[in-house]
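Reminder to self: tokens first, then the designed residues, so the page reads top to bottom the way the pipeline ran.
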């Protein structure tokens, strides 16, 4: 029996937003040499991943280096991405801020630009109680015009969100999904608890967990590597959804050698995937300071893996 969500949003302006599914790429942000945003190259990246089958875009997330951007830069990125996507796939905007008020403001800006979802981290640095986290999300959900996606990433935030907390939040009408970047056991517990909740999906945020997530009933995935290998990871999803886990496993085995390279010099870290994109002729470019550029050793390993996958690299 489905558990119906709490009806807390009454405005006709805020329609019921369908929960996301599929492969969502956390889009890198391309920079010029002076660290300004290279919007022309950014559009090419968005076109590339959409043309290769992704089901949605995550704009200004961790991979997009939002944490080294001003508020105005974050807004400019969201606005441009919605224009470039042009309705071809849904846009999810990274809208997390330290306060609910600022998060709501950015979420509603994203909605005005055309985004359908907002990804929100729990309050971190100055920690609050579990009740404070729940109230934070409920306030945002009740006042935002985008569907809210919980971002559970304790490795980065040092904030633990127990599965029971995520279950409680899943029952809010405008909270439609969770991005799980915790351990796989946590993801499985969340899946079990929320399996009967109406209009709520569970995504993994880790490359290594993409295929396992689909095999246990998860509905979607994010991953830095999708910027570079969108076609391959979309194919894994399609095979898994069709029930052909054997073929999905075979394809996953071919590309998993590159999974571990995403985090060998930092976590989370878009440097390796940016270097790989440069190698295949799709500008990835530099990371923004204080992040450091990938080493020559890492670039050599990326090149080796891409050649194994049949790519012509520079």
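Designed residues (314 positions):
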């Amino acid at each position: 029996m489905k558990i119906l969500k709490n009806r807390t949003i009454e405005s006709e302006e805020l329609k019921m937003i369908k929960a996301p599914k599929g492969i969502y790429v956390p889009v890198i942000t391309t920079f010029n040499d002076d660290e300004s945003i290279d919007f022309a190259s950014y559009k090419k990246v968005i076109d590339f991943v959409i043309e290769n089958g992704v089901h949605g875009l995550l704009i200004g997330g961790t991979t997009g280096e939002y944490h080294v951007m001003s508020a105005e830069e974050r807004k400019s990125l969201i606005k441009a991405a919605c224009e470039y996507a042009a309705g071809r796939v849904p846009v999810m905007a990274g809208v997390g801020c330290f306060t609910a008020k600022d998060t709501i403001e950015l979420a509603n800006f994203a909605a005005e630009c055309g985004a359908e979802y907002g990804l929100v981290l729990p309050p971190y640095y100055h920690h609050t109680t579990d009740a404070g986290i729940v109230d934070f999300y409920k306030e945002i959900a009740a006042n935002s015009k985008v569907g809210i996606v919980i971002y559970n990433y304790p490795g980065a935030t040092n904030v633990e969100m127990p599965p029971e907390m995520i279950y409680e939040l899943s029952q809010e009408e405008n909270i439609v999904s969770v991005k799980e970047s915790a351990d796989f056991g946590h993801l499985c517990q969340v899946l079990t608890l929320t399996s009967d909740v109406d209009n709520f999906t569970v995504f993994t945020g880790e490359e290594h967990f993409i295929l396992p997530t689909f095999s246990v009933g998860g509905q979607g995935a994010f991953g830095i590597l999708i910027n570079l290998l969108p076609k391959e990871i979309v194919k894994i999803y399609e095979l898994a959804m069709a029930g052909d886990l054997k073929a999905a496993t075979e394809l996953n085995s071919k590309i998993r050698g590159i999974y571990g390279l995403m985090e060998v010099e930092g976590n989370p870290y878009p440097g390796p995937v940016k270097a790989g994109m440069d190698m295949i002729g799709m500008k990835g470019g530099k990371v923004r300071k204080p992040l450091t550029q990938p080493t020559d050793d890492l670039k050599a390993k990326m090149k080796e893996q891409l050649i194994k996958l049949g790519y012509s690299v520079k």
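DSSP finds twelve helices and eight strands in the chain.
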